[in-house]
Design brief:
17% strand, 2 domains, Rossmann fold, disordered C terminus
Length: 282
């Protein structure tokens, strides 16, 4: 939704839907914020002023605002309003915010995996309810990217990219637009599926790897890739919405803070893959 069309009532309605699904009757818990806390905001800018802003993306050009509302099992889940790929277009997302570094050796690992599964299912439930209510979600981004791909199409480059992204609405939008730029793109929505694909030839020329993934996360995938001599030289572009210590990601070739504009994504891809265009095989 364009910024000039987005209103405080859209946000309050989205928060009401979020709270209704995240705190069902009889399940306990209390939201940290409700739509009643936003009633004093007369403009969307005033709403944004009361939300947390991800400053890491300021230089890169996409804005991201969030409210930590939680859910009845987990207090850190967030309601997010953000631009993504397309400047000036805003979308609602539910951020599970459950990227704690709890490894399989930890005694609470399996309980933590159950919480993450619950959060992921709840995220999909909330976003589906938003779509049904006519509110802007990242599913709208795919349609926008389909339109943009017709305007920004380039020649075939004969380069394979593996995109690892668990949010399929985002993955399909990115694939649509990158394919229009002449690249061949495959999608894996888990770290496990990414490693399965990388076990087969032909290898992609670039891996775009999400840091936050269900099950095997991006850092664990990175560790396995760099331990495999066959994959050791594979260029990896890490994408993350989390606050990550970049010192832990020294084995990647680039990092993008989500959400990012499409121009920055393509500039980074071209920096990592300076290839000359050529015709597709017959």
């Amino acid at each position: 939704m364009r910024l000039d069309e987005l209103t405080p009532s859209h946000v309050r309605r989205a928060v009401d839907i979020y709270v209704r699904h995240a705190f069902p009757a009889g399940m306990g818990g209390k939201p940290r914020i409700t739509s009643a806390d936003l009633t004093g905001a007369a403009t969307i800018e005033a709403v944004f002023d009361g939300m947390d802003r991800l400053r890491a993306t300021d230089v890169e050009g996409c804005k991201r605002y969030s409210l930590q509302i939680g859910n009845h099992l987990y207090p850190f889940m967030k309601f997010v309003v953000e631009e993504y790929l397309v400047n000036g277009e805003y979308f609602f997302t539910a951020d599970t915010h459950d990227n704690l570094d709890i490894r399989p050796s930890h005694p609470d690992y399996h309980a933590w995996q159950d919480v993450k599964l619950h959060n992921r299912a709840l995220k999909l439930e909330i976003e589906s309810a938003w779509r049904s209510a006519g509110l802007p979600t990242l599913d709208d981004l795919r349609s926008l990217c389909e339109d943009l791909s017709e305007l920004e199409r380039e020649e075939y480059k004969g380069v394979r990219i593996l995109l690892v992204e668990d949010d399929l609405a985002v993955a399909f939008a990115i694939r649509t637009w990158i394919c229009a730029k002449g690249f061949a793109v495959e999608i894996a929505d888990t770290g496990e599926k990414a490693l399965e694909r990388l076990a087969r030839d032909p290898l992609p020329e670039l891996l775009i790897l999400d840091y936050e993934l269900p099950g095997l996360d991006g850092e664990a995938v990175l560790e396995q890739i760099r331990a495999d001599q066959r994959l050791a030289a594979l260029p990896i572009l890490m994408a993350t919405a989390a606050k990550v210590d970049l010192a832990r990601l020294t084995r990647v070739n680039g990092v993008l803070h989500k959400p990012y504009p499409r121009g920055l994504l393509m500039a980074t891809i071209r920096q990592l893959l300076p290839v000359a265009p050529h015709q597709p095989p017959q």
